[in-house]
Design goal:
This protein has 10 helices and 11 strands. It is α/β, with parallel strands linked by helices and about 280 residues long. The strands form 3 sheets. A 6-stranded parallel sheet has the order 1-11-8-7-5-6. Helix 6 (about 140-150) packs across helix 7.
């Protein structure tokens, strides 16, 4: 059994991004810029945005955060996004989800310039990703693909179960795996017998926010298990969607929580923003 160390890999990605930023500054006089929009006072969202701000500073990005109250109108958010679309110093725009219920999330995401959609949520980028064309890809699934690459885990011809069908993780994850020539099953809340699917899988990827959903008897010997879930228990501890201690002995590879897929999400956001800045330099 080998742990997939997302924390170390994310640092490797950040070091690469930082080196590329220095080159971009020297050769093109471009400083990659990331703008974040956060609405409301959800503690988890603010903690995540704070981590993004620190990561941007570490790699030499210009970053700005627009913090807005829960009472803000949809039109006001749209105005700010349009302003950032037109700002040549901003190369990536990220709207922290979830948004308040009175805001139409899809409408907000579609206002973002697809060329600055470093979260990969715009329908334009989703469509290009599904058809295996160059695009900005949702950061968490992209981070999982980077882990497979780093640990030389082959996907071609593998039977893979993705547990969770969200637009942010499950659906783009499945598309990336299909593009890598894997055979993919997507399970979700309406799946009748989850264990029947996961027991046959060479690789199980789970991200639904249910603590210890995946138990040892649901995983076959030698499987690869990627745990994207992160849940805070009543005692304050963080756990994933996989019963790590029980499942670990059966795996060839497994991600811990925390320290697995989580750090890779921010690392891929940095990489996507760098990509956008480079493309801006090529167009100018």
């Amino acid at each position: 059994m080998q742990l997939i160390d997302g924390k170390t890999l994310s640092k490797k990605v950040q070091n690469f991004v930082h080196a590329e930023v220095e080159i971009l500054k020297t050769e093109k006089n471009i400083v990659p810029g990331l703008a974040v929009v956060i609405v409301g006072d959800d503690p988890a969202s603010h903690a995540y945005v704070s981590m993004k701000e620190k990561a941007c500073k570490a790699v030499g990005f210009y970053s700005i955060t627009h913090k807005m109250p829960n009472t803000i109108s949809q039109d006001e958010i749209i105005e700010i996004i349009i302003m950032m679309n037109n700002n040549p110093h901003i190369h990536g725009i990220l709207v922290q989800l979830p948004l308040p219920k009175h805001i139409d999330t899809n409408k907000i995401l579609e206002v973002i310039d697809p060329k600055k959609d470093v979260d990969g949520f715009h329908a334009y980028n989703v469509g290009r990703m599904v058809t295996n064309l160059d695009s900005f890809v949702s950061c968490t699934p992209l981070g999982v693909m980077k882990m497979f690459e780093e640990y030389d885990i082959s996907l071609e011809g593998k039977d893979i179960v993705v547990v969770g069908a969200s637009n942010i993780v499950g659906k783009p994850m499945a598309s990336l795996l299909i593009n890598a020539n894997a055979t993919v099953t997507v399970a979700h809340i309406y799946t009748k017998d989850l264990a029947r699917h996961t027991r046959e899988a060479d690789i199980v990827i789970v991200g639904v926010g249910v603590p210890h959903l995946i138990q040892a008897d649901m995983i076959k010997e030698g499987a690869v298990v990627i745990d994207i879930g992160i849940n805070r228990l009543d005692d304050g501890s963080l756990v994933g969607d996989v019963d790590f201690d029980a499942v670990r002995p059966k795996c060839s590879y497994i991600t811990p929580v925390p320290g697995g897929a989580g750090p890779m999400t921010i690392a891929m956001l940095l990489e996507n923003t760098l990509k956008s800045a480079k493309q801006f330099g090529e167009r100018s």
